[in-house]
Amino acid sequence: MKKIHILVLKAFIGPFILTFFMTMFVLILQFLWMYIDELVGKGLEWGVILEFIFYYSGNLFMMALPLATLLSAIMAMGNLGEHNELLALKGAGISLQRILAPLVATTCLFVGVGFLFSNNLLPYFNLKSTALLYDIRQQRPELQIKEGLFYDGISDYTIRVGSKHEKSGLLCDIMIYNHSTGSGNRSLTVADSGYMRITSNQKYLILTLYNGSSYDELKESAGERKYPFRINNFSLEETVFELTGYGLERSDGNLFKNRSKMLNLRQLSLISDSLQRENQSRALQQARSFFLLSNFQRGASDFGSTYTKPHRLNADSLLQACGVEQQLQIADRALVLAKQAQNNLLSQASDMQFTNREVSQHNIEWHLKFTVPLSCMIFLLIGAPLGAIIRKGGFGTPFLVSLLVFMLYYVTSMLFERLARNSEWTPRIAIWMSTIITLPIGLFFTYKAATDQRVTLPKWYLKVMTWIGNLLGGKP
Predict the structure, then answer these.
(1) Structural domain harbouring 295
(2) I want to staple 142 with a disulfide (CB 3.0 to 4.6 A). Which of 196, 310, 411, 427 is the partner?
(3) How far apart are CA 68 and CA 16, in angstroms?
């Protein structure tokens, strides 16, 4: 390896390591802010929280790798340009392509690592994080009680809450059925308001009730049917519920293993093909069922037709030959068959639409395993020439420029991914559109930096971008 390559790699690797960990730190903080309500106040151990962060960081890794590549490329080339080292290299007859060669080789390594991680490790990380998040959400029963619904997550009790105040935690219009005696709804407690809290050892749920009454239906002696009951009115009452399985219970990860984010390329292809074959088989079966249901011969045979072989019949003439009563019966029968056919078609269409969305989701994940790692190379082609053109080192200017470029890529990728999820665009086109848009920008900047020209976007590219914008806006 030449000394010039070592110089460029040193200028790139240091900022890359720094920016990668800074990006991961920022993304983890954003993740904690997003899931703070799921983690705080549930008595979780630090080990569980750190485990959840570790598994979720798999998704953050695939976001931090391209962004760190972009930022470090701008910083590396900006530092070389600011200290006139880049100018000296060009003056010695070394082209920009040769200067960027070690960065391209290193980024190719990043692309390979990103693809292997996305295909082999990321599905496992997604499975673990999804299963653990599901378990965490089931940890606090009082947080699972929804307004206006009966909750039976506490053994031997059914609780209904009319309304909840999210900030204060006040519960209003409370109704509690006690089934501990095993004799049905013989004990009922109602209250105007109350609070719920779990003890520090996570074994008991304490329910404090205000201004309510308890109704208990008493047992009768044999042979008596007087239906005795007891009413107790109270202004303050505390009820303690024993929580079985108070610790964090781990669910079976197989519950989520067939989701698209938990599959590798081979599994995504297999499931997508099987779903498409299932839809084709369902469409063929529905066509046959519709033909049999709407077949004229079947309807005619129901009313004693003497025809036993297919014939070309004039329906109007045949109907005129029948009596009025038979005409009414035939009309009623035809209406019933038409409604059955309509209901079957609507039901099958809904099922097929759901399956098509599943196919699109699997195809989206399949293409994302290529486009996300490949974005590292695109960001290098954009960042390195920009750094050579700007010639500003440090962290301020490179960070601002890289943030704008990353937001352009991220917004376009999310926009087209949504179009693919809504089945408005095919995944193979929509997922690659962000690459198609940004790759020419990177090649254009590389050309401008290599030839030391001013950076002005060509008219043809502006026309293409305007056409894409009009297409998304529904204009011709």
Answers:
(1) 264-360
(2) 196
(3) 6
Alpha carbons 85 and 185: distance in angstroms, whole number:
84
What are the pLDDT digits (tens) for 37-50? 777 656 677 888 88
Distance separating alpha carbons of residues 206 and 192, to the nearest angstrom: 17
pLDDT for the residue numbered 298? 46
The answer to the question of residue 182 being in a domain is yes
362-387 pLDDT, tens digit each? 888 999 999 999 999 999 988 888 88
Last residue of a domain, one of 360, 375, 394: 360
Helices (H) and strands (E) in the chain, counts: 14, 6
Cα–Cα distance for residue pair 156/309, rounded to 1 Å: 66
Taking residues 70-93, report their average pLDDT: 82
Shared domain for 458 and 376, answered yes or no, is yes
Number of domains in the chain: 3
DSSP string, 79-132: HHHHTTHHHHHHHTT--HHHHHHHHHHHHHHHHHHHHHIIIIIHHHHHHHHHHH
How far apart (Å, rounded) are the C-alpha atoms in residues 273 and 359?
A: 8
DSSP annotation string for 309-337? S-----HHHHHHHS-HHHHHHHHHHHHHH
136 sits in the region (left: phi over 0; alpha: psi -120 to 50; else beta) called alpha
pTM score, two decimals? Answer: 0.66
What CA–CA distance (Å, rounded) separates 430 from 423?
10
237 beta partners: 209
